[in-house]
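$ ./design --mode recover --in tokens.txt
reading tokens...
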């Protein structure tokens, strides 16, 4: 197969350069040294950031990466970025079950928020794409716009692609419902 066989063509219904913030929470800075079984072969958090930003470029949007091991730093980033970004993708990582402050800050931006995880955090113990120890309950999902998980780094690509389609779709984000 040629490289071309692995490319896919991107056709968007809009052409606006949306700005999408991708936030990685505590422990993601250690990505290169984490469990291969759960996190796959991404070499480092910087590699992940470059991969997601590069995909954003191909989609015609701007990806703004932010990561921190400190909850307060994540809160301050959300507060100061809310005016300029169109949507958030967040891997709450170590804050997944306890991140009420971050969840609330994201909710208060009024922007779409897609939660992402490498693993399927709801999978049972022994599931190939789960965390190993069995399911955990995210405190983010109940106010998120959407969720992608269980597909390692591709969860981010799924979130980004769906968000761009949604941002291009005036009905999705507006008051109206398609068909109104
Ligand atoms: O750090 C992480 C990463 C994670 O959010 C994931 O991407 O699968 C899953 C969380 O349970 C864990 O604490």
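writing sequence...
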């Amino acid at each position: 197969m040629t490289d071309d066989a692995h490319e896919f063509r991107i056709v968007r219904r809009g052409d606006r350069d949306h700005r999408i913030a991708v936030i990685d929470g505590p422990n993601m800075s250690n990505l290169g040294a984490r469990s291969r079984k759960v996190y796959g072969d991404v070499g480092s958090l910087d590699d992940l950031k470059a991969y997601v930003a590069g995909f954003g470029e191909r989609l015609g949007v701007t990806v703004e990466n932010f990561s921190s091991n400190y909850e307060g730093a994540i809160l301050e980033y959300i507060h100061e970025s809310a005016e300029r970004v169109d949507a958030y993708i967040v891997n709450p990582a170590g804050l997944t079950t306890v991140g009420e402050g971050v969840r609330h800050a994201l909710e208060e931006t009024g922007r779409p928020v897609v939660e992402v995880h490498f693993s399927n955090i709801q999978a049972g113990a022994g599931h190939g794409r789960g965390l190993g120890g069995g399911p955990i309950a995210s405190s983010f999902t109940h106010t998120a716009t959407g969720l992608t998980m269980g597909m390692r780094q591709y969860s981010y690509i799924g979130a980004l692609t769906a968000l761009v389609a949604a941002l291009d779709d005036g009905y999705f984000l507006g008051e109206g419902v398609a068909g109104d």
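exit 0
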